[in-house]
Amino acid sequence: MMKPKIHEIWLVSFPFSDLSSNKLRPALVIAVHREEVIILGIFSKIPDGDLRDTWILVSDQDDEFQETGLKKSSIIRSDKIATVNQSVFQKKLGILSPMLLEKVNLALKIALNLGD
C-alpha cells in the first residue's frame, strides 16, 4: 500500500476525541514521522453562518476541487488534530491546492496559539 505524504487527503479511520470509537472520514496529512502521521479531520457538515477562524472551507465550486477527491463541499478543521499510525489509512483521495494549504497553515497557527 502507498504511504501517506503531507498535503494529501486520505480516507482514514479517524478517532473520536474521547477515543471511545472512530469513524471513516477524509483527513488531510500535515506531517509524517516514521509510522506516525499527524492529520486534520475533514467534515462535510457545514454549519450555517460564519465559519470559525480554525476552519477552512473546501468548496465544490473551487477550480481545484476535483483534485481533492472529496465528494462535496467540506470543512478542514485545524482544531481536530490527531496523531495516528499509518495502519488506519484506507485510501488516498487526492491532494489539496497550494492556496488552500496556505489557509490551513494560518488556521493551524490560530488553533495552536502560535501567533504570527
How much strand content do the residues show? 35-45%
Which CATH architecture? Roll
Low-confidence spans: pLDDT under 50, at least 5 residues? none
Number of helices: 2
Question: How many individual domains?
Answer: 1
Question: How do the strands of the widest beta sheet line up side by side?
Answer: 4-5-3-2-1-6
CATH class: Mainly Beta
Sequence of secondary-structure elements: EEEEHEEH
Structural category is alpha+beta
Task: Give a written overview of the molecule.
There is one protein chain. This protein is of the alpha+beta class and 116 residues long. It has a single domain (8-111), classed as SH3 type barrels (Roll), CATH 2.30.30. It has two helices and six strands; from the N terminus they run E-E-E-E-H-E-E-H. It has helices at residues 65-68, 98-111; strands at residues 8-15, 22-33, 36-43, 55-58, 74-85, 89-95. The chain has a six-stranded antiparallel sheet with strand order 4-5-3-2-1-6. A hairpin with a 6-residue loop joins strand 1 (8-15) and strand 2. The mean pLDDT is 91.
Please sum up the structure shown:
This protein is α+β, with helices and mostly antiparallel strands and 116 residues long.
Keywords:
SH3 type barrels; six-stranded antiparallel beta sheet; 6 strands
Architecture blueprint of SSEs:
Blueprint lengths: L7 E8 L6 E12 L2 E8 L11 E4 L6 H4 L5 E12 L3 E7 L2 H14 L5
Antiparallel strand pairs: 1-2, 1-6, 2-3, 3-5, 4-5
